[in-house]
Every structure is written in structure tokens, then in C-alpha cells.
Amino acid sequence: MKVCVQLYTGAAGAPSPLWDERSLRRKIERLRAGADVDRAVIGWLDGADERYRIIDWLRAEGLQVYLWFPVFSELDAYAAFTPLISRDGQPVMGGALTGQGERFSFCCPGDPENVRKVLRVFDERYARLPIDGVFLDRIRYPSFDGGLAAFYSCYCAACGAPDAPMPTPGGANPLGIAEYAAGRYSLNDPDTWLLLLRKAERVTGALTVVCGHLRERGLSIGMDMFAPFLAPFVGQDYPALCALADFVKPMFYRATYAPAGLPHEIDKYAEAFGGSAEEVRARREALRCVAGIDAAEGGIGDAFLAREVKAASALANGRAQVFAGVEAVRMHGVCEADAAYVRRSAAVCRAAGADGIALSWDLNATPEEWLSGV
């Protein structure tokens, strides 16, 4: 099974204090002694930053190198984008800060001018890097981490009013979820179904343009994806996006309490619709139940992970390779992984048929002693 590593340089204007090129080289060499490490994702500071000099070494070692590029978020340091707009006309924030300089301020994927600006930023700041491909991150709408205003957006001039009105607070099943199986939902609420469909159409349409631009430059495409049971809520259509990519990385983050972390996103969904503490608790358990997360396992167990890996592979249907994203970082208060968790998660993903694993989301923050499990 192939392995992808992620090297986080820092966000725009906020270089990562963890960056250590010597340590990164040593970790990659240690990994390659026992694993098939064939690609690296690096970014997303300005392409002129000296940290990108490690690309030459990575390619000399035979790795494919992908620029880590946040499409609908973070690039506002380089251009003025139309933000997502809430019902009351205010810009929408897409989630919590992680303490690494990430803002989670999303622009609207439905505005064609935003797409043109994204491509202009790439051409002006990154196109000269000696890379093999581009790994597209933040290719989504905000999740429930940004609250209901984020989910029921966008109200900008390009989008008009969303197709579903915001519901009244409370209730155990505010979206009318009837069933979830193999990466697909059935909803009893046609307005919500139409909202999700429109969001997916806008994300896919924008990415079709972005990927076409990059393909014309001879670049391969990787994509950062939510786990299948969360992806519909953020506008990610797995079959459509996999048709545009060479590989995708579903974020199977079971030990992460930050955006894209499975337990975090479940809690934020439950909290977003308000109501009493009992209603929030019932909403959380209802989503866990429909997703098939066994309460007896306590956390999100291996059986659920295996089903989600298989679902991602079935939805990709051979269009793109599936590199299962396994968090392998030590970040107190954000990620509670450890060496045993990384080893077990990698083994489950391999047994479930993933094409590879992606050690997420920053090799700088991965203790070297954890790597032997991979």
C-alpha cells in the first residue's frame, strides 16, 4: 500500500513554527525504509518561500510532489474574494481557528469571478514551482462547524436565495434524514435535498474549471475530501469530484476535535440546530445511529472506518485512487492520536482496500517514534 506524506509550511502570512527540513528528511527516510512512500503534499505559503526548496530533494528521492492549495479558503491574503453571505447579509466564517494561522474564511464557489481569482493566484504565486501536481484543499462549503448561517448559505448576488429555508430550532432530525448507506443519504425533506444538490453542483462546476486549468499545464490532481457520511453536507459529490482527480484523500479523522474531525463534526451538527440539552444529545445520537456508529464502541470504531473506506472506494469507482487520511499528529486539544491509533487505523484502511494512506496533516507534528507502526 502506498503512503502519502503532508508537509505543512504554514498558512499565508503565518509560517509554521514547527517546520524543520532536517527532521522532515529524516522522517521520510525512516518511513521509506519500510513503506512505499510515493508522494508528498506541501504548502501552502507563498510559492516564493524558501521552505519549498525541499521539493528538489523530494523529487530526487523519487516522490511525486503536489502543491497543497486551499481553493475556497485562505487565499484572501492574495486577492479580494466574494465571501459566503448569510441571510442577514454578513460574511460567513466557516469554522474554528486551529492556532496554526488558518482562518477558515470561505469564499463563494458559485461566483465565477472567485474562480478566476483562484486561478490567477495560482499562476502568479505557485506556477513556477517544480511540482508534479496540485492537491486541492478547502474544496467545499463550510460544515456545521460554522453554524446554521454557514450551512444555509450563500445569499450573494451570484447565488441568490438558497433553496431551503432555515428550520426552526430543535428536533432530533432537522434535515429529515431517512437513511444513510455506502456514502449516500435519503432525505424526507425535499428542500434540504435541493439545497445539498445545488451546493454540490456549484462546487463541482467551479472545480471543473480549476482542474481544466491545471491539466492544461500538465499537472496531476489530488483532492481533500470529507469522509463520505459528511461530504454531502459540504457540497462534495464523490463520483463527480473523483472523475476530476487522480487521487482523493478522505479525512477519516476519528481522534480530531477540529474542522473535518469526525467526532467534532458530529457534535457541531448536533449543536447547530439549538434546542434543549436533551434535544442536542438526541440529535447527536440520531446521526451516529443512522451512520452506523456503534454506541457500544464508545468512540468511532474500526468497523465504521472500514465501511467508510469501502464506501469511498465504491463512490470513486476506479476514477481516482483513494488515499485514506489518517491523522498522525500530536496536537494537544486538537488531535488525541497516538502511535497505537496510527498503526491500527493504517491496518484497518489497508484491509478495507484503500489504495494508500495519507499521513495527515503535518509530518512536522508527527513524532518520529510513531512511524514504525506505518
Write the layout of secondary structure elements.
Elements: E1 2-8, E2 10-11, E3 14-15, H1 21-32, E4 36-43, H2 54-60, E5 64-70, H3 112-125, E6 133-137, H4 147-151, E7 177-181, E8 184-187, H5 190-215, E9 220-226, H6 238-242, E10 247-251, H7 262-272, H8 277-291, H9 302-316, E11 321-327, E12 330-331, E13 335-336, H10 339-351, E14 356-360
Parallel strand pairs: 1-4, 1-14, 4-5, 5-6, 6-9, 9-10, 10-11, 11-14
Antiparallel strand pairs: 2-3, 7-8, 12-13
Helix pairs in contact: 3-5, 7-8, 9-10
Outline:
This protein is an alpha/beta fold. The protein has helices at 21-32, 54-60, 112-125, 147-151, 190-215, 238-242, 262-272, 277-291, 302-316, 339-351; strands at residues 2-8, 10-11, 14-15, 36-43, 64-70, 133-137, 177-181, 184-187, 220-226, 247-251, 321-327, 330-331, 335-336, 356-360.
Describe this protein's structure:
This protein is an alpha/beta fold. Helices cover 33% and strands 18% of the residues. The chain has 10 helices and 14 strands. The protein has helices at 21-32, 54-60, 112-125, 147-151, 190-215, 238-242, 262-272, 277-291, 302-316, 339-351, and strands at residues 2-8, 10-11, 14-15, 36-43, 64-70, 133-137, 177-181, 184-187, 220-226, 247-251, 321-327, 330-331, 335-336, 356-360. The chain has an 8-stranded parallel β-barrel, surrounded by 5 helices. Helix 3 packs parallel to helix 5 and helix 9 (302-316) crosses helix 10. The longest helix has 26 residues, at 190-215. The radius of gyration is 20 Å and the shape is globular. The protein starts with a strand and ends in a 14-residue tail after the last strand.
